[in-house]
Amino acid sequence: MDAAPDSHQTPLDGGHVNTVVRVGDTVRRTAGPWTPTVHAVLGWARARGAWMVPAPLGVDEQGREMLSWIPGDTGDFPVPEWVWHPRTVQQAGAFLRIWHDATVGFPTEAGPWRMRAHQPAEVICLNDVAPYNMVHAAGRLVGFIDVDMASPGPRVWDLAYLAYRLCSFCSDTPTPGGLDPLRRLDTLLASYGDDAPSRADVLHVMVDRLGELADWTDQHADTSAQPELHAHAEMYRRDARHLPLG
User: Partners of 73 in the beta sheet?
Assistant: First the structure.
């Protein structure tokens, strides 16, 4: 699966964390000590029906992790219209349920993980499932990408961050008029399943999720020499204060 030295490499938007390129039908990303663990859980989950995540393909001659390419468009900025369609909320909730169920039984003591584990360790959380890590093609969602942040945790931990980004609780994402975040959250939870956490549980966990994300972002801003990320951390804390907890 290794690319020849002169293979064409197309840079991809890897955000503020990774360097990412496409080589043919593969994606090459910065690897780390967590990469073997993440590849193991990807293989485990795909073998149990989680078809919406990339296939792990090992590492290349430069030590980068290799993953299968999922064709389509991502919901990165500027946010495309499909992100706000109710069908996207429904499909995202169903996809996350498939992923979670497929990871049940994976050895949670495996590691290292890039992000810390949370209790109860019911499933392997993606920890960064959001529109910018969704792939859309032919009018529907077709995949989740950028799974290197995965680690053990409760289902509600993943649902809280997905709801924050997809249901319009996030203040850095301009949304069309008329969107009701709470109604979108209800749709998300219904698509996840009858045994999904309650709306109130998700919103309260969202506060903790955003607080931890803010702390991690501040630390990453310092270690990566990206001081502009401190503004992101402050946004997470501000958004957490403004959640409709009732």
Answer: 136
SS3 230: helix
CA pair distance 63, 234, nearest whole angstrom? 34
Which residues share a beta bridge with 153? 123
CB of 203 closer than 8 Å to CB of 243:
yes
Distances (CA, A) of 143 to 3, 17, 74: 24, 20, 9
pTM of the predicted structure, to 2 decimals: 0.93
Question: Is residue 80 reached through a cis peptide bond, with omega within 30 degrees of 0 on the bond before it?
Answer: no
- The letter for the amino acid at 130 is A
- What three-state secondary structure class fits 22? strand
User: Is residue 201 within 8 Å of residue 156, measured between CB atoms?
Assistant: yes
Residues whose CB is less than 8 angstroms from the CB of residue 191 and which lie 6 or more positions away in sequence, other chains included: 89, 90, 91, 92, 93, 94, 97
Q: Do residues 180 and 89 touch, judged by C-beta distance below 8 A?
A: no
Q: Could you give the count of Cα atoms lying within 13 Å of 114 in the half-sphere of its Cβ?
A: 22
pLDDT in single tens digits along all 246 residues of the chain: 344 444 688 888 655 457 899 999 999 999 999 999 999 999 999 999 999 999 999 999 999 999 999 999 999 988 999 999 999 999 999 999 999 999 999 998 888 999 999 999 999 999 999 999 999 999 999 999 999 999 999 999 999 999 999 999 999 887 888 899 999 999 999 999 999 999 999 999 999 999 999 999 999 999 999 999 999 999 999 999 999 997
Please give the structure tokens belonging to residue 103.
């990871």
Of 141, 41, 152, 150, which is closest to residue 93 (Cα–Cα)? 141
10 Å Cβ neighbour count for 211? 14
